[in-house]
Amino acid sequence: MTRPRCLLVLSCVAAACWNAGCGDATPPAFSAAPSIATNPNPAVPLAAVVSAETDEPSALLITVSDGEHEWTVPVSPELGTRHSLPVLGFRPGREHRLQVSARDAAGNVTAAVPLVFETSPLPEDFPSFHVSVSEPDRMEPGVTFFSLMRWPDGGIEDDSFGLAVALDAQGEVVWYRRSDKAFADPHRMANGNLLTMIGNNRAEEVDMLGNVVSRWHASRHPNPEANAEVPEGSIPVATETFHHDIQEMPSGNLLVLSTEMRRIADYPTAVGDDTAPKAAANVIGDVVVEFARDGSIVNEWKLMDLLDVRRLGYDSLGAVWDQWAYVDVEGGTKDWAHGNSVSYDADTDSILVSLRHQEAVISLSRERGQLNWILGTHEGWGERWAPYLLEPEGDVEWQYHQHAAKTTASGSLLLFDNGNFRAMPPHPQMDVGDSYSRAVEYAIDPAAKTVRQVWSYGGPDDEIFYSPFISEADQLPRTGNVLITDGGRVRDQHGLPSANIVGDHHWARIVEVTHDDHPDKVFELTVDSNDAEDAIGWAIFRSERLPSLYGDR
């Protein structure tokens, strides 16, 4: 290179470096030394806040070590002189060392004196977590995140106990949130916060320090006691209940399952017995509600207007809503369809709803408010619904009493097939001893109205397990593995599988398997009582693998 050209290049480099701040060789200084404080919100104790001040706009760099693990806190993209950063991922009952540094726009770095932070052990009433399989190189990276249902033996779920946890690949707790109210199925929102349902009439958005950002409630809930517990500042939504599932849509609106009650004359009094007398009944039907963050209802779809309210499956005459919401209804209520999941498919602008007591998953058009198709056994559907039934291609095994139907990235449908009864009335129910659950994936052609079964895990030809209630299956984005929440396991006093949800002992399992024709198990976690004398059981509604405790950062 000639000398003039070399000088020109050097001048350009110097100019670019100066414009980027490279000419600043002075490192930032701490005008207030870094300090660490336990999270002010005691609901999330394995968290802290690091504060500092710098003499010029900078970013804080934080590395944490507990002697066995080391990790870094995501760096804020915005520079400032006053800093307050949440630090997550501490493990319980140990001392942590934090190296805090400041980096200015030119890349100059100043390190502060290391900080020390000690965490308390887990509370004594925590469940026991046992990891029997862990292959991190084959697992989806991140933390396993779920909420727990505390279930005393011989009773019902403890509504006064709320616990959500995040575990690392070895099953060690790295985050948890406690509450004096049971909450279910926290979802990660686009902004990194958690969307959580409480009871059958409330939902809340919470940040990772446990601070409530927003609250909503079903303002037409029929139980006055539930309405009396609504916190001040909660945003009313003009519907009767929130139940089972709430999701954030790409628009920022929220999609939730609600209910309505209708008095229907000449309703069956027995399932599968056409000779039984008929009588008027208070039938509970699911309602899908889309509402904005201000509580205003954007859309509403009443499933009793779309489906056959007289088509009954096993459990359709159950009375759980007598306890959950409609407590003072004379003659009680009938749980006709029992919706238990709702999800939005943006690619097709459609909504999927899982209806447990109908042994069906339905797709409906968000724009038209009409059925697209029905997935499940064809038995019991009348002529009006025949055009919507998906015709099986090849070897298809229908799902029964399923949960958590959702569309995968490839456009297929994945769900947890609980497998209760494996029959529609009047056909005989499968014995509990023969029952099995599965994670199952279907490929659906909505135009041709056909369905193929393309993958499954569990059942007679695979590992046999049986969760008669709750549970989920998620396909994971990086590895394609499937995370299965086998969350509603029940065993009797002899240690045998049971469907006696109120009465026998509850335990749960989360398993991650490869998405192959012959899946390999790469992670397995069980949650159970601490010892054989402990009369406390545990269940898991759903779980997620979060890439990080910090959202997308």
Structure description:
The chain is mainly beta. It folds into three domains: 22-118, Immunoglobulin-like, CATH 2.60.40; 132-156 and 160-195 and 477-553, no CATH class; 243-466, Neuraminidase (6 Propeller), CATH 2.120.10. It contains three helices and 36 strands. It has helices at residues 3-19, 224-228, 321-324; strands spanning 30-38, 47-65, 70-73, 80-88, 95-104, 109-111, 115-118, 128-134, 143-152, 162-167, 173-179, 183-188, 194-198, 202-206, 212-218, 235-237, 243-248, 254-268, 278-291, 297-302, 334-335, 339-345, 350-355, 360-365, 371-376, 391-392, 403-407, 413-417, 438-445, 450-457, 472-475, 482-491, 505-513, 521-528, 536-539, 543-546. The strands form seven sheets. Strands 1, 2, 3, 4, 5, 6 and 7 form a seven-stranded antiparallel sheet that branches.
Based on the model shown, name its key terms.
553 residues; mainly beta; Immunoglobulin-like; Neuraminidase; 3 domains; 5-stranded antiparallel β-sheet; 36 strands; 45% strand; globular; disordered N terminus
Question: Summary?
Answer:
The chain has 553 residues and is mainly beta. The chain contains three helices and 36 strands. The chain has helices at 3-19, 224-228, 321-324; strands at residues 30-38, 47-65, 70-73, 80-88, 95-104, 109-111, 115-118, 128-134, 143-152, 162-167, 173-179, 183-188, 194-198, 202-206, 212-218, 235-237, 243-248, 254-268, 278-291, 297-302, 334-335, 339-345, 350-355, 360-365, 371-376, 391-392, 403-407, 413-417, 438-445, 450-457, 472-475, 482-491, 505-513, 521-528, 536-539, 543-546.
